[in-house]
Design goal:
Number of strands: 0
Order of helices and strands: HHHHHHHH
Structural class: mainly alpha
Length: 183
């Protein structure tokens, strides 16, 4: 009699990840329909009324935010697990403070994450021994300078205003990092 062992091959891992991703997409797509069915069809609430609309919106939005944060934290965890932090620390070691702060700002600006998902990357940077001034610069620049906000500002108010927004946020993050490098 042989016992079954849990052998995880790369193929089975990818199939499980694909299945989890499909389940997440299905839940995300069904979220609004579920709350509409529950409140309008089952409970008989008028979703056009202020109370019915507010209750429906609250539960729908809480579900959507939960799904988005769950998916985002999973992706960030996967990125953190695959990102070689020791290699990043070794790369930054001989570059100097200004280059480190500049690269932290660039990485913070191009990552489309809010502070909720930047914190796990920040903790990984600290655990890898990257200087605190550089990691704080990343942590500030990531939510402070948003590429989506820059595009919206540029479209509505002009690209010179969008450039000023990106530049001022980047300079502010670098200044805070430089101040922390002095302690």
């Amino acid at each position: 009699m042989t016992s079954r062992t849990d052998v995880r091959t790369p193929t089975s891992l990818w199939l499980r990840l694909a299945g989890a991703a499909l389940a997440w997409v299905a839940l995300y797509q069904l979220n609004e329909r579920l709350w509409t069915w529950l409140f309008r069809d089952l409970a008989g609430l008028d979703l056009a009324s202020p109370l019915g609309g507010a209750v429906h919106f609250f539960f729908y939005d809480v579900g959507k935010l939960f799904l988005l944060l769950t998916g985002l934290m999973f992706v960030i965890g996967m990125l953190r697990a695959s990102f070689n932090l020791e290699r990043a620390r070794a790369y930054l070691e001989g570059k100097g403070l200004f280059v480190g702060l500049f690269l932290a700002v660039v990485l913070g600006v191009v990552t489309p994450f809010c502070s909720c998902s930047s914190i796990p990357l920040f903790m990984g940077f600290v655990a890898a021994g990257i200087p605190l001034s550089i990691t704080l610069t990343f942590l500030l620049a990531s939510p402070l300078v948003s590429e989506i906000a820059a595009i919206m500002i540029g479209d509505q108010f002009g690209w010179h205003i969008a450039g000023a927004y990106v530049l001022s946020g980047s300079v502010l993050a670098m200044a805070v990092g430089w101040v922390f490098s002095r302690f």
